[in-house]
Amino acid sequence: MNGVDLKGRVSLPAAFRQTIDIRSGSPKVASGLGRTLRMTFNAALKCIEVSDGLQIAETEEQMNAHAVRVSEQTGELVGDVLDRLEAETYPLMKDVNFDTAGRMVLPDRLRAKAQIGNDAFFVGRGRRFRIWSPEVLRAVAGGESGDVLEEMEDLLAKRKERG
Predict the structure, then answer these.
(1) Is the dihedral of CA 54, 55, 59, 65 positive or negative?
(2) d(Cα 6, Cα 3) in Å, to the nearest integer?
(3) Could you give the angle at the alpha carbon of 97 between the alpha carbons of 132 and 142, nearest 5°?
C-alpha cells in the first residue's frame, strides 16, 4: 500500500523494482527501457494493469507474429492488423518511467478511471501487476483472492494507526 500525492506521484514497491530490474536484463528489452512501464486500464476490473519492459517486448513479439498470420490468411496489410491489435491490447495505454527510488507519476486519466485517490494497492500477477484503489478492490467481485484483500485491509489499518 503506497500513498499517492495530489500530483499522482507514487512509489513502486521495492520488491517490484527488484523483479523489474532482473527482468530488464533480458536481451529482449530494448536499451533504455528497463525503467519503463506500460500502463493500461482494465475496464472489467476497474484497475490499472502494468507491464514491464520484458512483458512489453514479449507482447509485441506475439502481436507481430499474429499480425503476420492474419495477413497471410486475409491479405490485409500487417501494419493494419497491428494497429487494430494494439488498440485492443492497449486501450488508454501510457508509458511511464520510474526513477531509481521507484518514484513515478500515475497518468491522470488512468488514475481517474481506476478511481485511485490517496492510496494505491499494488498486486503482483506474475508477468504483470495491478494497481488498485482499495475502495474499488473491495467492490469488485473476483478482483483478487481473499488473502490479497486481507493483506490490503491489514496494510490500510497500519497506515491509519501511523496517521
Answers:
(1) positive
(2) 10
(3) 20
Q: What is the pTM of this model?
A: 0.84
The DSSP-derived string for 22-58 is HHTTSTTSPTT-TTEEEEEEETTTTEEEEE-HHHHHH
Residue-wise pLDDT for 24-60, tens only, equals 888 888 787 788 899 999 989 999 999 988 888 888 8
| Grid coordinates given for 149 | 484483500
Q: What is the pLDDT of residues 77-104, one digit of tens each?
A: 999 999 998 888 776 789 999 998 999 9
CB count within 10 Å of CB 129 equals 22
Which cell goes with 11? 512509489
Length of the chain: 163
Question: What is the residue type of 101?
Answer: A
| Domains, the chain, ordered by start | 2-162 (3.40.1550.20)
